[in-house]
Amino acid sequence: MKKRTPVSTIMTTNVITLNHTDNLETAERLFKANNIRHIPVVSGDEIKGMLSYTDLLRISFADAAFEDEESVETIVYNMFTIEQVMAKNLVSVNSYTTIKEAAEILAQKEFHALPVVDDGKLVGILTTTDLINYLLDQF
Fold first, then answer.
1. What pLDDT is stored for residue 69 in this prediction?
2. Pick from 68, 72, 135: which is nearest to 106 by CA?
3. Backbone conformation region of residue 117, classed left if phi is above 0, alpha if psi is from -120 to 50, else beta
4. Which of 52, 66, 93, 96 has the most CB atoms lying inside 10 A of its own CB?
5. Would you say residue 111 lies in a domain?
6. For residue 39, is it within any domain?
7. What Pfam families does the database record attribute to this sequence (predicted)?
8. Per the domain annotation, does 2 fall within a domain?
9. Beta bridge partner(s), residue 121
10. Which residue numbers in the chain have pLDDT < 50?
11. What pLDDT does 65 receive?
């Protein structure tokens, strides 16, 4: 295993993003259609936050036992904006950050994805899944 391998070798570069003005229903559709768990929220080229599928699950706590689940989620989603639900205090890395350094950040924090930002522009996303796949490739 190479110790100085940069995250650019394993990060996802075809990043699906949300605009900070999108709604939560759009976010849910993107999560489900692309089978992903984290979406960077942007305004132009600037990253504003990160929305996780867990963030959506956290707010759709409404008891849907006697109602149509989809209509309850729509009501709940209309109560919040993406900016209210997303994580705002992001830790990011650049594409030259080593995989080891990124893994240490993820191991110490309570999130599972890091935006990769070069010169203020989002260029990728590194997830715990990317790291696990990299480790599996080593064996």
1. 52
2. 135
3. beta
4. 93
5. yes
6. yes
7. CBS
8. no
9. 118
10. 62-66, 68, 72
11. 42
